[in-house]
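[Q] Does anyone have a clean structure-token version of this?
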Amino acid sequence: MIAAPPDLLVIGGLTVDRFPDGSSSPGGSVLHIARAAAQTGIRVAVITVAGPEREARAGIEKLRDLAASVDATLAKSTATFVHRESRERRRLWLERGGGQIRLAKATSLDAPRAVLLAPILDEVVTEEIAHIASGPTRGAILQGFLRSVAEDGEVRQLPLSGLAPGLVAALSRFDLLVASREDLMGEAAEPLDQLASLRRCVGPRPALVVTDGVNGARIEDEHLPAPRVVEGVSSVGAGDIFAAFMLADAWPRPAPAGFLRQRVEDAMLAVAEVLEERGGRAR
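[A] Here you go.
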């Protein structure tokens, strides 16, 4: 029997995350999305890259348990982040860089219903994006593209002007681009201004969503409040999961009026349900 095509192909690097209590674990958008998809019956395929570290090997094994297929390139090391919490926000330092994803020979590119680019730093080379067919719905999480690394290793937000012209041209042909308010702090402070800057950068084609944590999300000139706020549990990976739910069902072309608004509201609700499954409490 021929396996059904995946509902969603997710492309991004695995990470090793180190925390203030001395613990470490595998992470990255691909793992956050695969876990959430397994809870909800979404069939996910993954293209990723990771090194030989113990945590990375555990992450690859977990992906193989969760995803319909996993195409993992072996690198010399895995992108390793040190997490530090401040009163304002979570701060990251890059301890070790990772490898790059090559898509030219990736068998998982065959016939997914949708493709989500979800880089964590610089593992997806701009030229490789051309290998993603334009037939499926294509989306990207901008977080990894909007990160720069300071001399001391701290990860900082990059303004949109720092994106390479070739990358902007590639992303401008996508169907959906998702960024968080934090991702775009290098551009402006408020989601409305951030969204306007992003639209000027990528042009008219992609649907744009700027998420703002418990405050909900913004699409064009409309603010959509979160339908349910979940407390008492880590929200790490919530933005990745949100973007995955945005793409997991078919996108009509052209999309009818109100389609994007409904899809955003449905995705926010799905994220809340995933956080509740983790043990969070809705208020």
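[Q] Thanks! Anything notable?
[A] Residues 168 and 190 are 22 Å apart (CA to CA).
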